[in-house]
């Protein structure tokens, strides 16, 4: 992350006046798998971190940005709430950058050893991709991708309330898949999909 991106995160510390956005759903790849895994775990736990932990993680983030001490100093003066927000934004950005194609998501979700944090980050990123990418991208995700989302959703019902956020993101993914005729047909072809969706909206 460069200083211009950092400037956007803190609301204009530098001289940049304009805010630009990339092409919706365009997800460049991360520098390394290690960076992604670290970002996932941080993104899941930042809300529960103590102020001291936030300070430590914030320093790590500044080091990773390769900023000069002159540029670090005003950032260190930010309130703890702003530092927490910046850490959250940074971790989500890094998590989303892991994936590019539908195959990336399908392959990643097929790993049975994924932690709860990693599944949440992936499903959240997938929801953004399914919402913002082209119809062709969603159709390429297809039946194989739908099966992986259903597997995760099924897993939510076998676990406790810690999985509620994952379940919600799975439902949003299914909604995005259903937003075209091909995706809707794929979902209706899966009896399990209809059952799981009904179970998700039924009161317990």
SSE order: HHHHHHHHHHH
- Beta fraction: under 5%
Low-confidence spans: 1-6, 12-36
Tally the helices: 11
Major β-sheet profile? none
Mean pLDDT: 77
Could you tell me the radius of gyration in angstroms?
A: 19 Å
Which bin fits the share of residues in helices? 55-70%
Q: How would you classify the helix and strand content by structural class?
A: mainly alpha
Net shape: elongated
Describe the structure.
Helices cover 69% and strands 0% of the residues. It is elongated. It contains 11 helices and no strands. The longest helix has 23 residues. It is an all-alpha fold and 204 residues long. The N and C termini lie far apart (44 Å).
Characteristic terms for this protein:
single chain; 204 residues; mainly alpha; 11 helices; elongated
Please outline what is shown here.
The chain has 204 residues and is an all-alpha fold. The protein is built from 11 helices and no strands.
């Amino acid at each position: 992350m460069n200083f211009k991106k950092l400037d956007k995160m803190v609301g204009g510390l530098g001289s940049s006046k304009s805010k630009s956005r990339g092409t919706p759903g365009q997800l460049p790849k991360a520098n390394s798998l290690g960076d992604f895994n670290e970002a996932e775990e941080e993104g899941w736990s930042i809300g529960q971190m103590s102020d001291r932990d936030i300070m430590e993680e914030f320093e790590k983030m500044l080091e990773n940005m390769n900023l000069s001490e002159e540029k670090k100093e005003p950032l260190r003066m930010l309130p703890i709430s702003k530092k927490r927000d910046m850490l959250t934004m940074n971790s989500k950005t890094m998590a989303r950058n892991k994936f590019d194609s539908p195959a990336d998501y399908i392959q990643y979700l097929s790993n049975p050893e994924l932690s709860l944090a990693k599944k949440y980050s992936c499903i959240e990123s997938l929801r953004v991709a399914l919402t913002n990418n082209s119809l062709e991208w969603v159709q390429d995700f297809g039946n194989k991708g739908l099966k992986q989302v259903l597997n995760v959703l099924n897993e939510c019902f076998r676990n406790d309330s810690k999985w509620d956020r994952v379940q919600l993101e799975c439902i949003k993914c299914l909604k995005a898949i259903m937003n075209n005729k091909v995706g809707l047909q794929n979902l209706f072809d899966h009896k399990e999909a209809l059952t799981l969706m009904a179970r998700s909206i039924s009161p317990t």
